[in-house]
Amino acid sequence: MKLYTIISLCTLALASCAGNGNKSADTTKTAAEDTTQAGKLNAPAQNMEYCFIRTEGTSNQDTTAVHLVINANKVSGEMNWIPKEKDARKGTLLGTISGNDIKAVWTFMQEGMKDTLSVELELSAQQLLQKPFKVTSAGRQEVDRAAAYTIIYKLDNCEKFKTPVKPAL
């Protein structure tokens, strides 16, 4: 009788171990699904307007402000780089978004000249990241595609992009 009880307990123990193995696989799947859900929570909302700001320099005197309007997979907006003692670059952004990645062309004016520059951005619900620029051998700036998204913009209230209302006469 003891032998039968011992064999039964061993069988039960092995069955429970096998059951835990299946639960681990199920738990892993659930964790992966949870990660995907968390990613969706950080994903930018579609058909939305976003504004971001970055200040830098010794006294945070240099400002870059970005205004994005997302409509389906299209992105438009403005980007203004306003350093304290240099010529500003103010212009428009036009591009596309795929997931969180934005590839756009920044058309701006600087020193009375019109120019363009590609930009690569990563958008989340709370911040905007940008790949830095590098200078080519020809002396032009371009996106450093080998670099990570290291330039960080904080969410802003879009005040810098609102057109002031003129008082009625």
TrEMBL record:
Name by which UniProt lists this protein: Lipoprotein
This protein's record includes keyword Signal: yes
Keyword annotations from UniProtKB, A to Z: Signal
Leader sequence segment: 1-18
